[in-house]
């Protein structure tokens, strides 16, 4: 999409351009953003794994806290963005400005509160997240810096989503990509040159995130987008209600993701630091792969939101099916590759530790078997969330890493030992898929009926 179009031209493009081309044009920068974010998370894992197995395990421990920060940021960001896209589809720009400002400044405040509490109770927090005595020192060094950056990291998630839902994924990509590249450059410098260990990786992360924050904020008012202004900040319950309705699915997904990581760490802990490190590596690998699909889905969401708000339901349906088919093909190819080259992939991170390699290869292969099912789960969640079906979206969102994964990762290791840890996510994926199928089909049927009604109304108007 032309990055310098005005608000009226942007509305025309979002509601009239062919959905396949539109989704791809919006998805390209979001995929780049998501992949770069995943790459610099992978960079942390890669460089820290060169320190020791215990340091590598600290990444898995710290990932739980990162998921909490993301949970709050995405809750407000996705909720604000979803609501803004529908408001813009209804041409309610002034009210959309209030929603944007409210989401942004609320995230800054919540991030500051989380940082204060986390730093005050840092030591118990590390063990609460599942650290062993040998992993704890590395985890403390990492988490301390992450907490310092929590306020603007959380606000960055909001800015990213607000820009994306306005159809300006390019501006969001610039901020995320710049920070990601800087993070990758700073990681080895802080870790090895300055000999800061895991703390150096975290310092690199918060510096790069701060630069991303500044770029995202600077771009917030460009290209026909809403400019974030404090005077538009509002404490109206009506705004927060809509933000929560649109954002709670992301909250459940991210918070349950954090809880699931804690449960995974505790379930893997009896098998030693190698098991925690191996599962942390596999989790990061799948986060990387999933980020591309989520990025593609984020190209679908503004198309869905604008057209749903403009009552163009046929375009919503067409966009959904195109997104599901594309994601399914991509994940199938990726899973085949991951299964076939699992040993080579895991050895990139920790080839010198045979135990980490053995555990990681088997876990990676198990997850590749069911990974293509995530295409339906993710797109169903995004459809429900964007059109305002908050409860259904929350249930689907909570299923993969909460409703099914947490019981699986608690129960299966007791029954099958280490294999139970390794198969927990694949088992969860199967049940999540079975849950998402009827939810999506019922919603698609509703959209088909609404589309027929709109065509009938348009036909009557033409006849008159």
From TrEMBL:
It is a multi-pass membrane protein. Keywords: Antibiotic resistance, Cell membrane, Membrane, Transmembrane, Transmembrane helix, Transport. Belongs to the multi antimicrobial extrusion (MATE) (TC 2.A.66.1) family. MepA subfamily. Its main location: membrane. One of its GO terms (molecular function) is xenobiotic transmembrane transporter activity. It is found in: Cell membrane. Pfam families: MatE (PF01554). One of its GO terms (cellular component) is plasma membrane. It comes from the Bacteria. The chain crosses the membrane at residues 21-43, 55-77, 98-122, 142-163, 170-194, 200-219, 274-298, 319-343, 404-424. This is Multidrug export protein MepA. NCBIfam families: matE (TIGR00797). One of its GO terms (biological process) is response to antibiotic.
